[in-house]
## 1
Amino acid sequence: MLHTLMPILAQVDAAPLATPGNWTIPLLVLIPVIGALLTLVLTPKDNPKQACILALIISLAPLAIVIMMAAQFSRIAVAEGDVAVSGWHYQFAYNWIPAFGIKFLMGVDAISLWLLVLTAVLTPISILASYNYIKERQPEFYAWMLILHAAMLGVFCARDILVFYLFFEFTLIPMFFIIGIWGGAERRKAAGKFFLFTFAGSVFTLVSLLYISYLNFKANGVMSFAMDDLYRFGQTPGAISPHVQTLLFFGLLAGFAVKVPLFPVHTWLPLAHTEAPTAGSVILAGVLLKLGTYGLLRFLVPVLPYATQTYAPVIATICVIGIIYGALVSWVQGDMKKLIAYSSVSHLGFCVLGLFAMTPEGVMGSVLYMINHGLSTGALFLIVGMIYERYHTRDMDQLSGLVRRTPALAFFAVFFVLSSIALPGLNGFVSEFLVLLGTFVSGRTVDGVRMGTLGPAYAIPAATGVILGAVYLLYWTGRVVFGPLKEPVHETADDDHGHHHHVPDLSGREWAVLLPVAVLVLIMGVYPIKVMNSLRAPIDGLVKSVNQPPMLDTGMKTADASVTLKE
Amino acid sequence: MIQFAAQYPWLIPGLPLLAALVIGSLGKWLKGWAHVPAILAMLGSFALSIALLIGLNKGPDAGGIAPIIDFNLFEWISAGNFHVPVALTIDPLTAIYLSFITGISLLIFIYASGYMKGDYGYWRFFAYLALFVFFMTMLVMGSNFILLYLGWEGVGLSSYLLIGYYYPRPSAVAAAKKAFITNRVGDFGLAIGVFLIYTLFGNITYSVVFHRVAVDHEFITVHQALLNWIPFCLMLGAFGKSAQFPLHVWLPDAMEGPTPVSALIHAATMVTAGIYLIARTLPLFQLNPVSLEVVAIIGGFTAFLAATIALCQYDLKRIWAYSTLSQLGYMFLALGVAASTSAVFHVFTHAFFKALLFLTAGSVMHAMGGELDIRKMSGVAKVMPKTCVLMLIGCLALAGFPGFAGFFSKDEIIAAAFNKPGIAGLLLGVLALLVALMTAYYTFRLFFRVFTGPLVLPATAGHHEPSPFALAEDHGHDEHAHDEHADGAHGEHGAAEHKNLDGPISMWGPLVILALGAIGAGYLGLFGAPEGAHGGWFHHFLSPVLGGGAENHAEAAGETAERVSHTVMMGISSVVALIGIGIAWYFHKKNRHAADIVAANFRPLVTFLYNKWYIDEFYEALFLRPLWVLGHLLNIIDRYVVDGLVFLVGFIPQMAGYLLKPTQRGILQRYAVGMIAGAAAIVLGVLYLLK
């Protein structure tokens, strides 16, 4: 069927993508911002629920734009080559602060494009999912959601590292308010912890990237924060001394690792997830965590290739610990949201592991993992939210056998669980298998170049996560979805006449929330080839640039770096 | 028809998939008609499979077809050099598997339309079954290891859903979970095996990998060390899916599923996927003779272990479940002693008679109102004459009674075990004979207990089992009805004893066909081969894929005395089967009291066997509990230690944050300025330190 669709998509004729001053991306980012203002202004006071409808319609506009972009992309036969560095499309440039070389550079390649699609899909869905969940101050809530939307879209389009950082940090503010105002009982603590953790980590990141551009300035005499310039600088052998690379590596890592989150800096996540409203959890798990992995992929790895090679085993060890640790802790949770939150710790371990495998298979798996985890885990949070709306509890001891009461909801729950435990045919399998395969083959020498520095010693323990994933998620399914029907007491009999509280199955709105995600899960499981083909060039470029010989400890002169430092 | 099947082989998995989607989406409206799309799809798939089988048998010169290698549909995954096409392969091995998978599925679907009639989840049941057939056919048709893995996990999913079909029962849910997770342990091995294959061969397509193994000797010498590991990884997968020790624990519990499921998935088809895997990847196993020996030993041991447990069980379906384990053990034993054709032959005959045994057990269970304990029934032949005859046929085939299907295939395996050179062969052969004796005994223990002797029926006989799907809130109403029912039952009890409880034709009709298979399938291994070839049509047909099996192997080893031994073996195993049946007859028909005395004298042994060697308890104590405790421990550590440590590490930047707090008044510019200023301060600090 997709084959028949492709020619139709191909007819959507496109202007050359690399036109300078293409306004597509600024439009993409500005629409939600304007929409946020409109939502605040236009929502009728007597019917605040309409804010949801309004926000939903506005959020569909970026989705339409992103779909158009994807359609154009899919018809370009992406040529072999160093597209990771040069293959930017829909470029937009504006000399923002010329004195410091800060340019408002934006553009997308296939990696950012598919993450934009993920963002643009999940936002309307989580807005729609909030229709009944958010009961007070609706216009503000949806305005913050749209602001958040703009910030997330901006991150994935940024090509200047300061612009990236700006959007990256800016996502904190709307999310801080979404958790802090519309969250659960401990919302203030959760919001504060969320903010402090991520902010504290990203200060190190900011320092490091400022320092990198300073080194670049020293070496080349031009102040620039453009990613391309910094890639070129970082990939020059000997440009940054090993010692400094090490410092920069861990400095950059600090902010991204908290965001991912990697073990052991994940402790903000379970709290933030449990307290956030459904929409907040969905966006947090679906998109915000990906900002961390995206940052690693977009900045840390290409700018510090030698340090990446050297420290990949360290990161991989952390990932493997996280995979197993997250799974075991997830297993013993009594709160459904916490269970899924810890599952994210485990899953994101896979995602980062694949990236640091630095093989085409592993990085492909990692990028797909970002998309697939966003869909599956986002959907699981939607499901938990729907259960919560019905029973006002997330306690697994109080609920059981929901399939008997709400079969459609249970179907989706099982479906997304299967996607999450990487059942072949659904999306999770493709990415998880590729990550493990890519890690397994990492360290091989292909055509005289050593690809990656990991190997079976990391892939095999990580693969136990495949077993553990089934353990904790099927445990949840077995307790909540299956088993004898058990409902919280005050929900089953809410009057004295023995009449039962009617617990409805999925409403039309809820079908509209879950079905699109389910369809995407299926497409990404059965026919991911179009996405994979478009990702091939940027990923190959990245892998190639990282695996360039020489390694960190061979033939690198430390002299010029120490000169830099003395000045 | 043959040409059509060769052009559209994807219809074989495609039709069941379509049926599953149709039933799954329209099930609510199909209600009692949900079996129709499933049965129609199976008819189609079965016809196509048989057409392919006939075509392959004829060969391209005689109006048939040549084996289809890599029938490419579309590309599924592509990253780096890793390409996974969705491509199908149809060679004799696949065709044999397809024929009995689709054929037995068809029969069981028809049976289930009677057995499950009126069940709350009728359409759900058929949707799952059709989905299972899709994955199972994909498993055997896929032309690469990843499609195998797809089918492998897919049948695991169907199995999970169907074991947990009666989801309000906690035991069913637990059994489903156990099956899936135990299988995942096996899948872990399979995945590592696939990784190794990709690492070494740079490809995951069967034809490419096996071609390389066959021709590139230098490659094999260079990579011997890693190649040696591949069979062990794949083996773990096979042992998980085919429930071999140490991963056998899930299969007996899987009997929580409805009986047609036990017959189809947990006896006839899915559990033989492990044999398929090893038969398919035989070239990789042959690179490492030690691996085949391990397969043989594990197979032999599982056959023995399961047979001993089956001796002391009382649950009708569980006895057959352990028997399945034991027979699967035989198949692995055969693979291990290089009699792979015999292994597949036993898979084939076993599919008929074990499906028959499970379905007749299901008929008994159905008639007894859900009762499965053989201590609570006796003389059932009087009320279920047809079922009795059918089960007798199945029992004779399982026990290896001369002339029945199981006799020929099992006999080949025992002979092959004996013919394995060295002391190991002798030991395995004796073990296999011992298991044959036990098999004959426990099979007829069940038969004589249930069908002969004075008529005793459980109180529930002739009534429907209460639906596990009844809701608590319906209970007031339900209970009332139930009481009336029970009152009536007392009066009817006498009537039930004389009523015929065989069930509708949809239930015993398919069994007649299975019974014919249980009698006749064995002769395919005896006749029909061209002059001078060993074995029968079956062996000849499979020889392009599996080689000549045991005979050829023995010949290659220069053993000429083999033929004699094979004939002698037929005699020995006949005698063994008859002895086993005779013992069962004495203890369970003639003098049941004696059985109780023997059991009482060996109480500790009986308890040990009844409790399945305590392996479940052992795993619980060794893996499950410690992991669960570790999980809780880590949870506490996470809350108090990790969180605390992170706070300490993050203390300094937090302090910096607090210091800068006055500049943050919610005005974005100030916020940004503050951020940059703070950062700049730290830069200076770092630079100072470096200096």
## 2
Amino acid sequence: MPPVIRHLGDRGLLVALGTGIDPAVNRRVQRLHQILAREKLAGVVETVPAYASLLVVYDPLQAAPQALKRQIAGLCDFDDAAPRETRDVLEIPVVYGGEYGPDLDAVAAYHGLSNEEVIRLHSDTVYRVYMIGFTPGYPYMGELPEALETPRRETPRTHIPKGSVAIAQRQTGIYPVVSPGGWQIIGRTPVELFDPQQENPSLLVMGDQVRFRAVTAEEAHQWRP
Amino acid sequence: MAAVELLDIMTPGILATVQDTGRRGFGQIGVAPSGAADSYSCRLGNLLVGNLEDAAAIEVTLMGFQARFGCDAVAAVTGADLQPTLNDRPLPMWTAHQVKAGDVLAFKTPVCGCRAYLAVGGGFSVPAVMGSRSTNVGAGFGGHAGRALQPGDTLSGRHPAQYLHCRGRTIPDALRPVHTSTWVLRVMAGPQAEQFAPSSYARFFEAAYTVSEKSDRTGVRLEGPVLATQPGAPDSILSEGILGGAIQVPGDGQPIILLNETVTGGYCKIAAVIAADLPLLGQLAPGDTVRFQETDMATAVDLLRRVEAAVAWVRANLAD
């Protein structure tokens, strides 16, 4: 599919490289993100990858918007060969349920499953990090097994503890900092996802692979990177 | 002994944070730019006191801020007219003043606009985090201890005595922004404009919206005519990158103008405020009226060029 490039005001171009939550589309986004990082086009301030689109932020006094749009369209003409996953699958320990996963019971009841079956389904899958967004370091990961597809909570929470592991629709995510949020909280991880003092502040980047591992609260307490 | 005690916060008021021109390049890991909500006023304040325009200043919101200087320095207040006073006497804005240890800066009550900036020669000495001194309040890093200022906080400065020669500098009237309580913001059609019902799209430009009390540094929430998407069109989309100035419309049909604390969003964007008008977004106060005027790219770029020419004039003519 040829890219669809739309203006977001006078300093953003949204490049859509497909539709939906699809690893092949997301790999195209990742590829364009990498190409633009390499090309360093004049006036481009930064690029923000998402599921199926890349936002190119630019300074309209440094780059003529229409010319930049044509330049980007020209760079989208790459073959579909996906960039290789370069990092190993990262295992993330999770304490499921109880005080750490207040929605686990409701999610299990919604699907007519036991808590153990929900945990097994959630931790049996290798997820792709489709994008980082919402808050610093928040990974949007997919796809959740169909048997766990769950709507968002009707009333979002205003205060979700750091490290909370959550699901919504066919996605799973981890809240790296205390924030509001509407996803179903099924567990918590002791892993630090975002540390602004590090050279690479976000543990995860787009394209990473993640698997969850159920641990006890005691194991989580003793967990060290 | 570069750092000296520069400012003691007595009361921060509604919200006071350390901000600069923002944090760029980390959108890919979910980190928004943050930075002064009215970047124009913040930049000019810094230039007035002899700083680079991206130095750290204090952003003061509406009312209640009070602070005592810990040493002699040169200071300027720009942005909204919140009636600044020094030792209870009115302090002229947009001008660099010499202040002395023990002087108390306060703000009486807002006349117009929402946020004022306090810039001090040498800048506020807080560590740069990910390339910026701006406070990311939501994630709790940057600025002073990663949070809004609190009573009892002491901010350090860097060589404030070396900037005293800047006193008396002032921004010419023609370059001072004119604030009001009835705003016209110039916008371009948003990436999902066509998803809105044509009647809603027209209403967006005809209506006068009121700035809600629920507005904050993340976004200006508006109240007014409900905007609806086309029949059959969803009101949410797959999350995508977003920018300050984007106007998104969630399910309740009430538009929100995003500021610089958000990197991705999943609501349809009916329009986006042009870069030249972004500094005004920091000045929209609860109860103000907002109208939107559609413009095109060529006009938007020309208007931005004029804003940057004004900053360049100040840089060239107020510098040593």
